[in-house]
Every structure is written in structure tokens, then in C-alpha cells.
């Protein structure tokens, strides 16, 4: 028995499957929260009555945050255990010549704001995204 294949029908099924898949992909992308975290940030850490400037380079992948930080006080550092979950930022900065710094924060309008803990004390920080 010979099976007759209808090429037109097969092509139409493939085209419809591709259309459905691309539509679902567009729909899923449309519902994702925009990435407001990735990029370069100018940070200020409040230390007593003074502020200490630093810079962050953050990268968001899903809910995982990676990147680097640097200041004149700490030198260069890397982000460990970074996360951005339910609008809350959390990571640890590790340095070669400075104690690690635990960071928590959130996005407040266009700034990242939060607390940091290092060298036995806790204080506040904020960061503005570079343009």
C-alpha cells in the first residue's frame, strides 16, 4: 500500500506550529519584568558622617545577580551569591584587601537604596545608574 503525502498540508502544519511558538514566546517576553538592574552604577556608602564613593557593574540573569564593585577604600571586588527576587537585591562583595561587604537593597524610583554590613557595623548606601 502506498501512502500519499500531502506536502502542502505538512508545510501548513509546520507554519502554524512556528506561528504558535513565536506568539507564545512574544507573550512570555511581554509579561517579563524589564531588567532595571543590569548596568553601571555610581554608589555612595554612608560611613559615620562621611560618604565613600564606589562603582557597581551589575548583570541580571533571571533572578541571579553577578558583577563587580570598586572603590578607593576597598579596591576591586566581585559579587557572590547575588539575587534580585521580588524587587529585593541581595549580594556579598568579596575583596582581596578588605573584609567582605553584605549588601541588601531595593529599587526606589530610579535609585538603588539599602543597607550594608562590614567590619562590625551596618549603615546605608544608595546608587544611581550611569547614563
What does this structure look like?
The protein is α+β, with helices and mostly antiparallel strands and 131 residues long. The protein has a domain at 39-129: Quinohemoprotein amine dehydrogenase alpha subunit, domain 2 (Lipocalin, Beta Barrel), CATH 2.40.128.120. Helix content is 19%, strand content 56%. The protein has 1 helix and 8 strands. It has one helix spanning 7-31, and strands at 39-47, 50-61, 64-71, 75-85, 88-95, 101-108, 111-118, 121-129. Strands 1-2-3-4-5-6-7-8 form an 8-stranded antiparallel β-barrel. A hairpin with a 5-residue loop joins strand 5 and strand 6 (101-108). The longest helix has 25 residues, at 7-31. It is elongated and about 80 Å long. 19% of the residues are buried. The model is unreliable at 19-30 (pLDDT under 50).
Q: Find the CATH superfamily of the domain at 39-129.
A: Quinohemoprotein amine dehydrogenase alpha subunit, domain 2
* Main pleated-sheet profile: 8 strands, antiparallel, barrel
Query: Do you know the CATH architecture of the domain at 39-129?
Result: Beta Barrel
Output the CATH topology of the domain at 39-129: Lipocalin
Structural class: alpha+beta
Unreliably modeled segments: 19-30
CATH class of the domain at 39-129: Mainly Beta
Strands ordered across the widest β-sheet: 1-2-3-4-5-6-7-8
User: Helix and strand string, N-terminal first?
Assistant: HEEEEEEEE
* Beta-strand percent range: over 45%
Number of DSSP-assigned strands: 8
As a whole number of angstroms, the C-alpha radius of gyration is 23 Å
> How would the global form be characterised?
elongated
Mean pLDDT: 85
The DSSP helix count reads 1
Terminal CA distance reads 69 Å
What is the percent of helical residues? 10-25%
